[in-house]
Write a structure and sequence with these properties.
The protein is mainly beta. The chain has one domain: OB fold (Dihydrolipoamide Acetyltransferase, E2P) (Beta Barrel). It contains 1 helix and 7 strands. The chain has a 5-stranded mixed beta barrel with strand order 1-3-4-6-5. Strand 5 and strand 6 form a beta hairpin. The longest helix is centred in the middle third of the chain and has 10 residues.
Length: about 130
């Protein structure tokens, strides 16, 4: 069975760290025609969560407006809101991330050139990072 997602989009907020998790909102968009035949942009927002060394890299190099390539998997969970209503939370757990461009093209913050950065839970922290 396969649970794989590939997204390319812009980060909508600076990364937020909560315990071991680092979360960002990622906007993807597509052009569609409206009822009048005019093209309009339709945006989808995705919550992407990173863990481990990849989360550290996201905290250090990613900010609002950064264009990201993300590979991961969909994770859904149920929770009770403050009104005791059952809600569904959908997030992407990212395990591959590539910065395609910094938020400002004048900034020089490319991570590791054009190589992908992958999360490896067996990563040996005594080894040097590849960038």
């Amino acid at each position: 069975m396969i649970n794989k997602v590939i997204l390319v989009g812009r980060v909508g907020n600076d990364p937020k760290q909560s315990g071991a998790a680092v979360k960002v909102s990622l906007a993807t968009s597509e052009k569609t025609k409206d009822a009048n035949g005019m093209f309009v942009d339709r945006a989808e927002w995705h919550t992407v969560t990173f863990f481990g060394k990849l989360g550290d890299v996201v905290m250090q190099y990613v900010s609002k407006g950064t264009l990201l390539y993300v590979e991961g998997k969909i994770r859904m969970s149920k929770y009770q809101d403050k009104n005791n209503q059952e809600r569904l939370s959908i997030e992407i757990v990212g395990n591959v991330m590539q910065i395609l461009s910094p938020k400002n093209n004048n900034e020089n913050r490319m991570v590791n050139g054009s190589k992908k950065i992958e999360y490896n839970p067996d990563f040996d922290e005594t080894e040097d990072l590849p960038f």
